[in-house]
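Next comes this protein.

***
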Amino acid sequence: MTLIRFLLRKSWKLVVGSLIAGLVSGLAGAALIAVIHKGMSESASTMTLAWGFLGLAVLVAGTKALSEILLTRLGQSTISELRLQLSRNILNAPLRQVEELGSHRLLAALSDDTDVIAQAYVQLPLICINAATTLGCLAYLGWLSWPVLLLVVGFMTFGALSFQWQEQRAVRLFERSRETNDALFRHFRSIVSGIKELKLHRTRREVFLTTQLSETVRAYERDFVGGMTVYSFASSWGVFLFYAVIGIVLFLWPVWRQTPAETITGAALVLLYMMGPFSQIVELLPGVGRANVAMRKVDALGLSLTASDATDAAAQKKPQAVQPIRPLWRHLELIGITHRYYHEPGDAHFQIGPIDLSFRPGEVTFLIGGNGSGKTTLAMVLLGLYPPESGVIRFDGMTIDESNREDYRQIFSTVLSDYFLFESLIGLERETLDGEATTYLERLQLRSKVRIEGGTFSTQALSQGQRKRLALLTAYVEDRPFYLFDEWASDQDPVFRKVFYTEILPDLRARGKAVLVITHDDQYFALADRCIRMDFGKIVGMSDGSMGTADSAFTHMESSPADLELFK
């Protein structure tokens, strides 16, 4: 089972120790039954039996507790590592893969799947102890009468096979409910993100609730209840088989074979004692089945947990860059770069390139063009978040590839159009941080709104434009060689928009930073050192040097009169 393999891979010593303790507990429990049986059979109990009973009772309780503690401790440490590993795998996965999976699937894996697996780890100690108790009882039953043991094992084998057949049906239903759960998370995200739109359109809200959300909720309920129903029938079938074998031993076995009454009584007593742990195992198996579905779902997302050790080992052996990425640099080149989107494998949808560009320190470049022209995609490739399908990126003559792309990304500070603002200046801890950040708060006209203490923002209850200024502050204190802003000024008022173009960008240039600004603010095009226009994934116009007017300074490449009109 996937779950058991994952548990063993994490700490086989604790698993073995727990299983040994559980086995001792089970055997001691079987021995306790033997003592009870013997005490019932003899006319008067002896002190030897009494002390034996007491010792075995203490041994059963102690080893049961030890087994539970070991496996619970292992289970909780493992689930913590599982959550961290899954988060690490998501962060290490290619950005394109993460985007294609969608946030709803990732949130379902991080929350629902890990919760299901965590619950299974809590149940595993009980399953192991009950299994050990069942084995101990079978051992004592074999000592009483091996023919009776064969009869019981035959019934248990038949019950296990029929249970497995029913379990396959239940697992299929659980898998369907897990797939539906992804859709549920997508709908929940729609409620949170689109609540204003839903409130403003009653018909849309009602259709969303009564069709999309309601149908998905009902589908999840149907499949989940169906799976649990199958397990309930399987559990009841197992209980019936136990009663059947007890009836056979008590009423039919003495007719078939001459067997001492003491043996029959002992066998019936053992079987009755076994029913408790065996029934509990069957009741806990649905949770384990759901956990295995969750583990397979995580693996199917391409965020494998079962192979995480191998992945980590491979990452540690990753070849290093021939040269280190230096914060002081001279030249960054994109040579023949292309990148494509795919709806399905092999189905190319949109391509940028081939593109040849170069950037230098102390240079402000504007990247302009219509929506969907490929500007943001080009930015993602430049940042090293999307690998180019062809062409190369060279940083001071060093080719950027998988061996050094992570180091290469560290030269960039960004405020993207879909930026995320953390609650603190995480990863920037230093003694002077609060003072530096407060200085920038003054400059960004946020001092009256926000305080920074210990690198943490006092509030984020700000307007969209003010939040973007906080994101800009974060980029400022990072103090990296290359700055990229994607439509940063679009949410700013006219006054602060002018501050951005006439004060902030010139300041970055003066500090020797390379700056790439994706923008539509044509009234400020003349302030750039260079302006590059994209259309349909290609560079169709470029100006070098200080710009007088947008259209007179452009050198057009593959551009048409209609393209030129966009600059006027």
